[in-house]
Amino acid sequence: MKKIAIFTLMLLLSAGIVLAKDYEIQKKAGDLNVVVKMDKNPAVMGENGIDVTVKDAAGKEVTDAGVKVEYSMPAMPGMPAMNYGAVLARNKNVYQGKLNFSMSGPWNIAVKILRGGKTVSTKFSVDVQ
């Protein structure tokens, strides 16, 4: 009976890992709706894929913008602040790129969208494992 219980627990835990969803957050940037998806949840040290979908107020996907992601970790005792950036490439209706987190802990992320000579941005945080 004990072996069956352990097997069932292992099966449930592995199913939870397989069914874990990507990280997704929806934010506003000016009058644009922004959906950010990361391929790892939680984000991990090293390379993490990021997809950004941008829609206008009418819900139409925006494909004529430049999208940049700036990510940073604030200074801590004995460690300076870390600041990085990534320009995302458009692939059909999604802007895609990679973020490379150099250490675990809280990171601030700013998505900046340049369209028609105007830049709007939105911010969020992730806790890198």
User: Major β-sheet, in short?
Assistant: 8 strands, antiparallel
Per the principal axes of the C-alpha atoms, what is the gross shape? globular
- Whole-angstrom Rg: 18 Å
Beta-strand percent range: over 45%
Work out the count of structural domains: 1
Q: pLDDT below 50 for ≥5 consecutive residues: which ranges?
A: none
CATH superfamily: Macroglobulin (MG2) domain
* Overall mean confidence score, pLDDT: 90
- In the CATH scheme, what's the topology name? Immunoglobulin-like
Strand order across the largest sheet: 1-2-3-6-5-4-7-8
What is the first-to-last residue Cα distance? 36 Å
Number of strands: 8
- Structural class computed from helices and strand pairing: mainly beta
Tell me the name of the CATH class. Answer: Mainly Beta
| CATH architecture annotation | Sandwich
Question: How would you portray this structure in words?
Answer:
- With 129 residues, this protein is mainly beta.
- It has one domain: Immunoglobulin-like (Sandwich).
- Helices cover 13% and strands 56% of the residues.
- It has one helix at residues 2-18, and strands at residues 23-29, 32-38, 46-55, 66-73, 82-91, 94-101, 105-115, 118-128.
